[in-house]
Amino acid sequence: MSWIDIGALEDIPLRGARTIKTALGCVAVFRTGAGEVFAASDRCPHKGGPLSEGIVHGQSVTCPLHNWVFDLNTGAAKGEDGSIATFPVRVESGRILLDAAELTARSAA
Amino acid sequence: MSKQRLIIIGAGMASGRVIEHLVETAPDAYDITLFNAEPRGNYNRIMLSPVLAGDKTYEEIVTHDDAFYCSHKIDCRFGQKVTAIDTAAKTVTSDTGEVLAYDKLLFGTGSNPFIIPLPGHDLEGVIAYRDLEDTQAMMGLGQGNRAVVIGGGLLGLEAAAGMAARGVDVTVVHIMGHLMERQLDPAAGYLLRKSLEEKGITIRLEANSKEIVGKDGKVRALMLEDGTELPCDLLVMAVGIRPNTALAAEAGLAVGRGIHVDDQMLTSVSDVLAVGECVEHDGALFGLVAPLYDQAKVAAQTLMGNEAAFVQKTLSTKLKVTGCDLFSAGDFAEGEGREDIVFRDPARGVYKRLVIEAGKLVGAVMYGDTADGNWFFGLIKDGTDIEEMRETLIFGPAYQGGVAADPLSAVAALPPEAEICGCNGICKGTIVDAINAGATDLGAVKATTKASASCGTCTGLVEQLLQVTLGDDFQMPTAQPICGCCDLTHEDVRRLIKAQELKSQEAVWQELGWKTLNGCHVCRPAVNFYLLADWPLEYRDDPQSRFVNERKHANIQKDGTFSVVPRMWGGITNPAELRAIADAADKYNVPTVKVTGGQRIDLLGVKGEDLPYIWADLNKAGLVSGHAYSKGLRTVKTCVGTDHCRFGTQDSTGLGIKLEQALWGSWTPHKVKLAVSGCPRNCAEATCKDVGIICVDSGYQVSVAGAAGMDVKETERLVDVASEAEAIDWTVAFVQLYRENAKYLDRPYKWVAKVGLDWVKERLDDPAERARLIEAFELSQSIYRKDPWAEHAAKADAFQPLADLKLEAAK
Fold first, then answer.
1. pLDDT tens per residue, range A56-101
2. Predicted ipTM?
3. Does the structural domain B325-395 have CATH classification 3.20.20.80?
4. The BFD-like [2Fe-2S]-binding domain covers which part of the protein (chain B) (predicted)?
5. Cα(B172)–Cα(B170) distance, rounded to whole angstroms?
């Protein structure tokens, strides 16, 4: 694993998200009300809605376009046939670290 | 064998425990010399809060007195500092110039309180909460004094509660959204805040300190970023601690955030150990006492030449404030594949949350009833498989058989004097009395008490009262709850927010028995609106509970770009504004420019990251947000009226502009569109709007509740008035009545259909009620009548990607 510092936890609003540009397209980094951080593809598999703009509730996000709800742990859509890729992310001393190896490995594959 | 020489730097709780282990087990192993910068020996620092609260005296919390040191022949150097260490020669130098040799050296230098370097932090009366001197400074205050505590963590709150118990007027300023955010989740943080406020402590959350204001060298007030001044005689900073590593670093020990130690508490330099708050072990720092005692035990074993290893364990926290019963243990945030079990009992103010991962309990947060805390803590520490008892786990070890949480408890918990029916001013007690006297269905309650006989929004509550009072004798009609997160309808939630004075989302989740942690995309925007509409000053709009358009202040399009619509007051514009719009369209490569149905111009296809810049450009030309995206006032469509039209009877354009200027920026349950036509020919199409005004020779016909969307419906006449001012008053009052009563996402025509136009007329016909509504609206507008674009343009960073890893990869 190679952890890359992508920013401070405070840069993401509570129950909100920010995006990161990667070779794989935009990745959304979510911060839940309880302070957890998740990273997943920013693109809804339904109609391509930007998930980073959705409402974050519990450990889920709702797509702003047509209200698909995704579990941020697994990336699975609830009650729909579809899912988004999730990426390892962790927080250390208030900084958000994303596993870049994962991103580049998948883009190379 | 002669004794070896052990020098200990720092007489604190960890090093004190090392000494105890040594003198008990191997009294002849070491000659101990103990340095301490404070002019005293070891006392129980965590008991300073009971000393502050007056429950204990300093003498009672001294761990080691002179007799202890004397009987174990410990050479005490209290008030002396070690200034230098030579690890090669194995000597330390003290500030008296003395050089002492050691065989083993132990660091117990502890930590320093972190002082935020705000302007004025060095004024007299600005203290930390760390030692006896700080405690005594706080104990010097009493009735009539004011204190501000910066930091809503464990220590800060204990300091605040201790001073409040002495009659001091205390304000806690906390930068985060809830108290003790490291140990508690927002729900428990809300309950804690409520308990502390009941003790008379003022809590200010999400408050940034800007400056400490002094007078004659002494603290006078704390100034917040938003300009608020909090006067105080004493300012306590309790914002965290930093391991005290300066001496260790100078001596050449490996130091990160703390002094690096291995499992044996040995530092990077041979024969030098460290314990306590100054160490960093496997990336972790330590502030609670339990791991410090574990470290002390290991360090003592190492010093005695025995095998021992320090292992980090799960910790639990309790707050030492009377009446604030909270417990937290383990890890209740962070991590994938976790599930929550949440239990709330609004009537008793109880909240419990368990976090489960892979069939095991990994975290627990509790408030109000912490009796089972240690049992849960045991399950966490032991990693017990809880799958078998999962269903009943949250009810604790004593649980046998099943009683489900009562969904009616929110209503049952209301006091008799709580108002149920706002229209007729009927309290719970009156209704319960009527039910007990034989009014056993809704119709009978309506007939005897008038409750729910007017607008009907409290019907659900009256039915619940029937059920609570009559039990199984009452058959509850099925009402649709807001969503799966709760059992209450929109109307019930609105009524209870008012009756119970719920002023935060956390309050709603807790008191109304929400089954999820913080709602979902269905209920959260609704609750956010209800709170801001009912408590404009106490509650502020939460962008994270808004649909994307209202958070971004632009309409999201199907390709993820946005549309930008500047406001054109009453549909009037001028060449300068049009030039600015044209320039912006060029500069930001806007693919589509369209004239809208609301008499303004839509710039479609703007990239999300360009939004703050295009707004800033439009702002420069005097253009503000048109709120074309909001559940709020959209447009006031007008015709040209008497200005130009030969048929015009009144200045319809002027009235439209005045209405738009009065109403813009306000949040409403759904979008609101207005129109003013200058004569009955109705060129502004006013008769299909939420509020439509038709000007006639004799004055103004105000009509409401039209629609031209999914449904098409003509407006209904509300009132005819003679003057422009009255037309504005009635319109504002109608919009406020709608804001106070409608269900979220009901357009006015749907709401009016539910409550009846007669009820609306009756309310607005009362001059006192009309004045109250206008005043309430103005109060809310004192906060929301401003341009969100100007505000967001100043925070352009938040619209950009957090990072660009494509660039990273190219490097």
1. 999 999 998 888 899 999 999 987 788 999 999 999 888 999 987 7
2. 0.86
3. no
4. 420-467, 482-531
5. 7
